[in-house]
Amino acid sequence: MEKRGSAVTLQKQHFYNDKHPDLSPLPFIPLSDMDDIALADFLPQVIEQACNAIVVVDSDDRIVFFNAAAEQLWGRNRDTVLGADISRLMPPLQDGPQSRLPGQSEIDHLVGHNVELPIERPNNTRIWAEISVSRVQACEQTMRLVVARNITIAKVHKTLRYQVLKAMAETESLLEVMNLLCQEIKRIAPEISATIMRIDASGHLHSLAAPDFPPEYGHQIDGAETDQNVSCTMAAFRGEPVLIRDIENDPSWGNTRQQVLALGYKACWSVPVKTREGRVMGALAFYYRVCRRPNKLHVQLAEIGVYLCALAMERAEARARIHHLAFFDDLTDLPNRSLLHVQANQAIAQASRENEQLAVLFIDIDRFKQVNDSLGHPAGDTLLRIVASRLREAIREVDILGRYSGDEFVIVLTQCDSVRATDLAGRLLAVLSAPCRIGEITLNPAASIGISLFPDNGRDMNTLIHQADMAMYQAKHKGSGCFSFFSGQLNQIAKERLTLETALREALFGNQLQVYYQPQINIETHQLHGVEALVRWSHAHFGQISPSRFIPLAEECGLINVLSQWVLNEACRQLAHWRQQGLVVPSVSVNLSPTDFHNLKLPHHIESVLKAHDLKPRDLLVEITEGVLMDSNPSTMKTLNEIHALGVRLSIDDFGTGYSSLGYLRHLPVHELKLDQSFVRDLDHDRATRALTNAVMHIGDSMDLTVIAEGVEHPTQRNLLKAQGYQIVQGLLFSPPLPATDLERWLDENLSFTQWK
Ligand code: C2E
Ligand code: MG
Ligand code: MG
Question: Is the distance from the beta carbon of residue 651 to the nearest atom of ligand 1 less than 6 Å?
């Protein structure tokens, strides 16, 4: 290759692609038309005006060329660097592209590579440059061409983003991420002390990170309100960046002035952190030790800084929301069952350490189902919210309150003995019973409370809740608006109840129940009027169990529908069987419970049972108590009317004991009244009772209803009833309830007897 004057040699020679020497040469301006002199003038001018910094270093590592862009990048005049060793401009490499060969200079080591290096400028500022070094042959020696460009902004973005996002991925703590951001800002611009604040939903400030400040400074700001003039960060909450160039003399700086000055800070620039929708979540503040304004780098740092703050804060908020959804009840905003257990177990552990007592209150709203059923679920929700807020207001900060499920709430009272628990339970019942308006309706809510005590009744939350729950049931049995303490006796009852429940289930599904039949006699005609089907349970171990005991149990544990349907089917089957045998049994009465009428399929079930046994609707009577009529469940009336529409007759059992208004008799399709046995019992020794039984007879008569007297045991009772006009009677005087075959025999032996007269 031709060797001529240095400039010409540089131009005519192809710039070699150092990175890939085997690839094609880099594009080069065709200079064939220019003479050497023109080229010698032209090229230095071009290089001088290039926007990238260009430095040429001779074989002794001395700087021989330094263009205008290089002066700007390094912040040095070329006169101060020409002839100097290149190492003056380059920081020693921390970790180079690859290990240096022995005797290799720093600059040689960089040949063929692109590196990002921090450059310290004489004015104490630091920039980042991307530097590439190539080896060039010029002036019969090997030179190095250094090309550099300022990448500070891109580098700041990259570094901050990388560090902060990495921290966000690795830690859940917002405080840690925010502290790291402040530290990274300081690493890039050591003249800045950064702080980050958060603003909560109620407009209060919280210090998130202030690594250069003592903790007391953060405490002073914590909880301050945004409209107080606490510091310049306040202004940032107005949504605008705020610069206080001279903290000492700026009147807008609030009550932290002396602390800030004592720490050596003279100026502060703060920028709001906003969500994408523009909601201010906090502020990023830069404190300076001199009175000044932010430079371009600071502005860039703040831009990326607030972006990262917003990202981290929004992520923390989302996490908090998820946490809230997982551990709080959406409707009442109270801790849900999981959180309640966690908090309660902590309280129990503490009580155990401190040797203290603690009470667990299980609160259940009385007749909540009725509110839901009759007024609708939104009304039920409103009532639950009202109850939750009344409970919240009635307890202390240290007590724990949660929604356990449905209409059940649990309170854990710390440092509480039975006296305090009694006091609070009474107060809670009073507070809860205050009238409240839901839509157009004023309700008088009531609740039942069960109480268990730590450590007397149990040492863990599951046991304490279970026992408080049992005590609550006990309270419910006392009536609405009562409370009850758990007792060992209660535990015994509950255990027995559970055993009985299991046994009943087995009996029901194992066909161990029986139906007995009690005749109803017409004492005028001596004819059989009908029979009442009464279920019987004889247990191998417990013996005979009265329906008055197991029917309520079946209702409580949800077995009543199955039981009633079984009795219904069995009674119809038996009646059909008697008919086939030629026995005259005019009808069978079956007792149904209030909950049976919530089942909208009941009419259909009755219809199919009758059909299956080839019976007429008139062959069956359904006995209901007045309790059924007081049930506000909307299904009840619908079911009753549909059963009536089938042609099945309705009988009011235990008539006169339900304390209900007699008005229902006008609207309901009732066919028969069964005078309660308590009236019959008192008939012969109580005038008032006689007056009542007489009145019942008249009601029945005037409304064309059959009236049956139940529980007739003595001839005097029979005679008195007969004198009052009663024709149909049922009771031990005639026959106890009997198994079907015994009844057949009884009918055979007794039906034409005149002793009934
Ligand atoms: P109830 O429907 O009023 O039944 C009459 C109760 O009086 C029966 O008690 C019967 O054995 C009893 N009794 C009959 N004659 C006399 C008498 O002269 N004196 C006295 N003191 N009592 C007499 P039982 O069978 O123990 O049934 C009690 C209650 O259990 C029934 O009262 C009824 O409410 C309920 N029950 C019985 N069987 C069923 C059933 O299959 N389903 C439902 N849901 N409830 C039933
Ligand atoms: Mg009955
Ligand atoms: Mg009865």
Answer: no
Q: Please, which pLDDT band fits residue 202 given cuts at 50, 70 and 90?
A: confident
Judge if the beta carbon of residue 548 lies within 6 A of ligand 1. yes
- Exposure b/e, 182-213, CB count within 10 A at least 16 = b: bebbbebbebbbbbbbbbeeeeebbbbbbbbb
For residue 648, what pLDDT band results from cuts at 50, 70 and 90? Answer: very high
Nearest to 299 by CA among 364, 243, 349, 365: 243
DSSP lists the bridge partners of residue 450 as 362, 484
Model pLDDT for residues 303-313, shown as the tens digit of each residue: 999 999 999 99
Ligand (nearest to CA of 711): 1
Which of 514, 538, 549, 591 to mutate for ligand 1's pocket (most ligand atoms within 8 Å of CB)?
591
Q: pTM for this one?
A: 0.52
Instruction: Tell me the best of 534, 589, 655, 734 to mutate to test the pocket of ligand 1, counting ligand atoms within 8 Å of each CB and taking the most.
Output: 534
Residue with the nearest Cα to atom 25 of ligand 1? Answer: 534
Give yes or no for residue 14 having a pLDDT over 90.
no
- Going along the chain from its start, the domains and CATH numbers come out as 8-150 (3.30.450.20), 155-326 (3.30.450.40), 337-486 (3.30.70.270), 497-751 (3.20.20.450)
Q: Which ligand is nearest to the CA of 622?
A: 2
Q: Which ligand is nearest to the CA of 730?
A: 1
Cα separation, 134 vs 17, in Å, equals 8
* CB-facing half-sphere around the CA of 114: CA atoms within 13 A: 5
User: What would the mean pLDDT of 17-43 be, rounded to a whole number?
Assistant: 51
pLDDT tens for 118-157 read 888 887 777 889 999 999 887 788 889 999 999 988 888 8
